[in-house]
Design a protein that fits this description.
34% of the residues lie in helices and 17% in strands. It has 682 residues and is of the alpha/beta class. It has five domains: 37 residues; 178 residues, Rossmann fold, CATH 3.40.50.360; 127 residues, Translation factors (Elongation Factor Tu (Ef-tu), domain 3, Beta Barrel); 111 residues, NADPH-cytochrome p450 Reductase, Chain A, domain 3, CATH 1.20.990; 144 residues, Nucleotide-binding domain of ferredoxin-NADP reductase (FNR) module (Rossmann fold). Helix 10 packs antiparallel against helix 11 and helix 21 packs across helix 22. The protein binds flavin-adenine dinucleotide. Flavin-adenine dinucleotide binds next to strand 13, strand 14 and helix 16.
């Protein structure tokens, strides 16, 4: 058979694309420059992504893997690996991200049978029961490559992190069971851990699952469990005396280390290599009388090659407020300027943050020093307190040994780590006993926060907008959200002196100071997308900042000149925190196909109204749209709203179609499975 030149050209392009795709990680490193291969990449930094090769080369016999969307599963996984190591010294543990390994070889997991004692997986669930983004290759392997009985008798343990307000609670962990255990024959040891973020039980669920897991591991593999759970540093701590230009001062990547301010960064940009985007505009969306702040922020991405689609998420990498940093440094009597380096003791482990750096930088930029403190961390501190300080030891044991006491005294009082120590004793010299190495290994890493993009890639050329409600917990304004208070300070600019929290807005070595300010950002793809067919009607339910992506959707359809039906249910407390009120009333009022229904829950002149009530009032409109093939989108509070909206839709369908609630439930579930019902809730 003869090929014509066009066939050959197409074939060559196809082969080239396959080769390029298979080498994409190396190409990305090349594009970013070899400096991007910093030790944070850990196990992949030696170039190999072959799981078996790494296990054999490093003489490992116990594998612990994590799939993490926001970093929580990663934190728990690493904590588990560390504790397991201190408890059972004879285990040789390899701990890593699914993303660190290739799953192209059909036997990637089958090869492990007989080579590792056990595979433990920490897996978070994302979206409609899906595996997190970094597990895309592993997911493909599970769906298409893994053969039945391939893992016959491979011992496996699973800890899932999920949120029960979603239909497919811990769906990713359940999928692991179905594929690895039920189909491929692995032997499940113990129960599957099922942390539920909606009731904030992740820490307690982890502790009880882990305690049971350790006992099972001890029995199953006939190990001698050491009672000694004393802290053992994973890294060699070295005082650094080298050049200052090599010291990280908050830069997140080597590409930004001592970078000339105007250096062109070409990406591709992601969490490990974020784009420093200028905040080109920002404004307050709430009236002062509302007592709330909601900031609209616009990032200029014109000098990047970032592409996003309406409905995607923006990751913002924050820093801690100076007030929180000094509280932490003072409580622990730390020397802010001490410069240190860390060397890995085990080449398969990873560094917690870029080094060399100084203590103040690490506390400001890399550690999650606010937020509720972990009971386990407080209980671990007892080991550092000498017996001569019996009352302090006793107090630490007292608050940390019972979940109820800890909740009542520490969690309900909104104490963070440093606050908790001060609560135990404000005069005790904590810094004399608690080593900095323990803190840097135990305090979780500071994670990016995600925001539903509120702009449209079609309408808002080269701009990404977000809509962030400034988080303040309790009357004590020092208990505030890290990122939203940072955005608030940027918005307030020179009027920020009166704010409770302040940040180093200039960033490391003045890197973030521009016409306005810059922040490190990256785009995360989402499946929260308008239907491909612009004629399909949409029903959007987004109270509060849940309205963010719908602003983008409407702007998209404005550009597309689509006249298909758009129904929006929006809710706020009252007129004073009605987000983008003028915009809805003026900018989009030419759209005869857009119907907006507003619910106010705290307006004294009318009864409390939530979006669910408005939906019931509009049941005919909703049902007609559904019959015309409408897609449903729900965005915002995962606590109660998403569940109640789901139940409201079920009752509308049941009522209008005259079918049972169970059948209506199945219909809504079917819509979710078929991509006609999307939730983007947090
Ligand atoms: P954090 O520092 O993360 O704190 C969270 C909360 O804990 C705050 O209320 C804070 O006051 C409180 N807190 C702090 N310390 C303590 C303590 N010791 N004890 C008890 N509580 C404490 N948010 C939006 O506003 N708009 C959006 O469009 C949006 N979209 C999102 C999309 C996705 C996919 C996800 C996952 C989340 C989204 N969020 C959105 C939520 C957002 O990511 C952040 O969680 C939110 O802005 C708070 O971030 P923060 O850093 O300010 O607060």
């Amino acid at each position: 058979m003869a090929f014509d030149p066009l066939d050959v050209a197409v074939l060559c392009c196809l082969v080239a694309s396959v080769v390029l795709y298979s080498k994409k990680d190396k190409i990305i490193s090349f594009l970013r420059g070899s400096e991007a291969l910093d030790p944070l990449i850990g196990v992949s930094s030696n170039g190999s992504k072959d799981l078996l090769e790494i296990i054999e080369a490093n003489k490992k016999d116990f594998l612990i893997l994590y799939g993490s969307q926001t970093g929580t599963a990663e934190d728990y996984c690493k904590k588990f690996a560390k504790e397991l190591h201190s408890r059972f010294k004879e285990l040789h543990i390899l701990c890593g991200d699914f993303d660190n390994f290739d799953f192209e070889d059909p036997n990637t997991l089958g090869n492990l049978v007989g080579k590792v004692k056990c595979l433990v997986i920490f897996m978070s669930t994302y979206g409609e029961g899906e595996l997190p983004d970094p597990c895309a290759n592993f997911d493909d392997y599970l769906n298409n490559v893994l053969e039945s009985d391939e893992l016959k008798n491979l011992p496996i343990m699973i800890f899932g992190l999920g949120n029960s307000t979603y239909e497919f609670f811990n769906g990713a962990a359940m999928k692991l069971k179905e594929k690895l255990v039920d189909e491929a024959g692995a032997k499940l040891i113990g129960q599957i851990g099922a942390a539920d973020d909606s009731i904030g039980n992740t820490e307690e669920e982890y502790v009880s699952w882990k305690d049971a897991a350790f006992e099972l591991i001890e029995q199953e593999f006939n190990l001698k469990g050491g009672e000694n759970l004393l802290f053992e540093p994973m890294y060699e701590y070295i005082n650094y005396n080298g050049a200052d230009t090599k010291v990280f001062k908050g830069e997140l990547n080597k590409n930004y280390l001592s970078a000339e301010k105007d250096k062109k960064h070409i990406g591709p940009f992601d969490q490990s290599y974020p784009f420093l985007a200028e905040v080109s505009e920002s404004k307050e969306l709430c009236n002062p009388v509302s007592g709330r702040n909601c900031v609209h922020v616009e990032f200029d991405i014109s000098s990047s090659n970032i592409k996003y689609e309406t409905g995607d998420h923006l990751g913002v990498i924050p820093q801690n407020a100076q007030e929180h940093v000094s509280n932490f440094l003072q409580t622990l009597n730390l020397n802010a300027d001490e410069v240190f380096d860390l060397h890995l003791k085990d080449p398969t482990s990873t560094l917690p943050f870029p080094v060399p750096t100084n203590i103040e930088t690490a506390v400001t930029n890399y550690l999650e020093i606010t937020g509720p403190v972990s009971r386990q961390t407080i209980s671990q501190i007892v080991q550092f307190i000498p017996e001569s300080e019996e009352s302090i030891r006793q107090r630490l044991v007292e608050i940390s040994s019972s979940a109820e006491t800890f909740h009542k005294e520490i969690i309900e009082a909104h104490l963070n780590f440093a606050d908790c120590l001060q609560y135990v004793s404000s005069t005790f010299n904590w810094g004399q006993y608690i080593p900095w190495t323990f803190l840097l290994e135990t305090i979780p890493s500071l994670k990016p926060r995600f925001y539903s993009i509120s702009s449209s890639n079609l309408y808002d050329n080269n701009k990404i907008h977000i809509t962030a409600m400034v988080e303040v917990t309790d009357a004590d304004k020092l208990v505030g959200g890290v990122t939203t208070n940072l955005l608030n300070e940027i918005n307030k600019g020179s009027n920020s002196k009166s704010l409770p929290l302040h940040y180093n807005l200039s960033g490391p070595r003045g890197l973030y100071k521009a016409e306005s300010y810059k922040l490190p950002i990256f785009v995360r793809k989402s499946t929260f997308k308008l239907p491909d067919n612009a004629d399909t009607p949409v029903i959007m339910i987004g109270p509060g900042t849940g309205v963010a992506p719908f602003r983008g959707f409407v702007r998209d359809r404005l550009v597309e000149n689509s006249d298909s039906e758009m129904i929006l249910f929006y809710g706020s407390r009252n007129i004073d925190d009605h987000l983008y009120k003028e915009e809805w009333e003026s900018q989009y009022n030419g759209l005869s196909n857009l119907k907006v229904f507003n619910a106010y829950s705290r307006d004294p002149s009318m009864p409390k109204t939530y979006v669910q009530k408005l939906m019931l009032d509009q049941k005919d409109l909703i049902m007609n749209a559904l019959k015309k093939g409408a897609f449903v989108y729900v965005c915002g509070d995962a606590g109660t709203m998403a569940k109640q909206v789901n139940d409201t839709l079920i009752s509308i369908v049941s009522d209008k179609q005259e079918i049972s609630v169970e059948d209506a439930h199945e219909m809504i579930k079917f819509m979710k499975l078929n991509g006609r019902y999307h939730e983007d809730v947090w």
